[in-house]
């Protein structure tokens, strides 16, 4: 299933099953059935149809939202071997940790908000009638060292846009990981029909601004004194790139 695909289930119980799994990120089939109080034969039929239509995948009785996110890619730069791949629900804690480290001291307000949101919801990827949220991660020895995140509201007037955050742990910067993550995120956005990707950062985060400018992003606006960090007013730099 692609993020650009409109959700159509044909049966209310199929919608309920999908929404339960999507809301929890990943769920045991028996748990879903018991929670929704659907008879076993009807439940298995609806799951089979959801799998057939590409809405859900199942692995050892665990149900997940099935999304077309592409394969993993391996890189070796300056003797640092890393993998860029679609994020999985089990990456949740690693992503939260990476975002919080990169966004410490108020350097990346939007990303910090994303970490709070996924920590509260306990669901990493989302695709419902209100929003779509996608993550790719960079891993070294199976540990998350960077991420790229895209979030898009399911509103007609904004359906061509998506918000992006990207970051890499300090110890792994300088090896092209951030560039590969950004490229992967923008490729995904373009393939799903988005025309413009944007993000904002405090003007004090000059490294982030320089990084995006080096990759073709432009400053669209500056909101004066929008943030208050450690008692000081800081401008918000609003940047975007057209795909």
Task: Walk me through this protein's architecture.
The protein has 243 residues and is α+β, with helices and mostly antiparallel strands. The chain is 34% helix and 35% strand. The protein is built from seven helices and twelve strands. Strands 4, 5, 6, 7, 8, 9, 10, 11 and 12 form a nine-stranded mixed beta sheet that branches. A three-stranded antiparallel beta sheet has the order 1-3-2.
State the main characteristics.
alpha+beta
Give a quick rundown of the structure.
The protein has about 240 residues and is α+β, with helices and mostly antiparallel strands. It is built from seven helices and twelve strands.
Layout of SSEs?
Layout: H1 12-24, E1 26-28, H2 29-36, H3 40-52, E2 56-59, E3 62-65, E4 73-77, E5 80-86, H4 92-102, H5 109-121, E6 126-127, E7 131-140, E8 143-153, E9 161-168, H6 177-191, E10 196-202, H7 206-214, E11 218-229, E12 232-242
Parallel strand pairs: 9-10
Antiparallel strand pairs: 1-3, 2-3, 4-5, 5-7, 6-7, 7-8, 8-9, 10-12, 11-12
Helix pairs in contact: 1-3, 4-5
């Amino acid at each position: 299933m692609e993020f650009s695909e409109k959700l159509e289930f044909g049966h209310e119980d199929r919608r309920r099953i999908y929404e339960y799994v999507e809301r929890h990120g990943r769920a045991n089939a028996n748990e879903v059935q018991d929670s929704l109080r659907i008879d076993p034969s009807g439940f298995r039929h609806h799951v089979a149809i959801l799998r057939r239509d590409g809405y859900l995948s199942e692995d050892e009785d665990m149900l997940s939202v099935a999304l077309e996110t592409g394969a993993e890619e391996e890189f070796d730069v300056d003797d640092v071997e890393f993998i860029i791949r679609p994020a999985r629900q089990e990456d949740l804690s690693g992503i939260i940790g990476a975002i919080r480290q990169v966004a410490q001291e108020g350097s990346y307000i939007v990303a910090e908000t994303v970490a709070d949101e996924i920590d509260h919801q306990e669901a990493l990827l989302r695709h419902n009638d209100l929003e779509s949220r996608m993550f790719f991660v960079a891993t070294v020895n199976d540990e998350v060292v960077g991420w790229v995140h895209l979030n898009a509201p399911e509103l007609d007037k904004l359906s061509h846009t998506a918000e992006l955050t990207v970051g890499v742990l300090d110890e792994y910067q300088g090896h092209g990981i951030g560039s590969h993550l950004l490229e992967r995120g923008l490729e995904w956005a373009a393939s799903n029909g988005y025309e413009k990707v944007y993000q904002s950062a405090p003007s004090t985060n000059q490294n982030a601004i320089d990084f995006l400018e080096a990759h073709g992003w432009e400053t669209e606006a500056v909101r004066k004194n929008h943030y208050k960090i450690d008692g000081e007013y800081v401008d918000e730099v609003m940047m975007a790139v057209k795909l």
